[in-house]
Amino acid sequence: MQTQAFAKxxxxxxxxxxxxxxxxxxxxxxxxxxxxxxxxYAVARPAVExxxxxxxxxxxxxxxxALPDVGTAREQGYPELEFDGMVGVxxxxxxxxxxxxxxxxxxxxxxxxxxxFDRLTATAQVVNPAGAADFARALDVxxxxxxxxxxxxxxxPTE
Length: 159
Fold this sequence. Notes:
Blueprint: H1 2-9, H2 22-30, H3 41-49, H4 97-111, H5 114-121, H6 132-153
């Protein structure tokens, strides 16, 4: 939906083609049946490495190590395309604080392991080991971005 908001915001006439899965969309992009596709690099990587397609921008707030020459959407003048794909660990509120802290510390330590870091960054993921408070703040920013996207596109949020 981020791409739809971008098109509407900039008054671009782009036809949205709904796909059941990203693989077919990627195939259509490599065969020039569609001209634009927003995807994770992990999905698009084989086609990029084969020289069939090229990345235009990284939608994350930071450049990706795997794509050092590809600027962020914000750097290229399109901050409305900025959206971090975040992954986190969640637990019920009844989990004792000391157990949550222990898991948080373990996850941060694991994320900083060179082998883990290298494997994640190879697919253009931005590894940013952070604690629960930082993650909650980042989620609030993403939520605000999503609300703005919904407003621009006129979609109705689901309950």
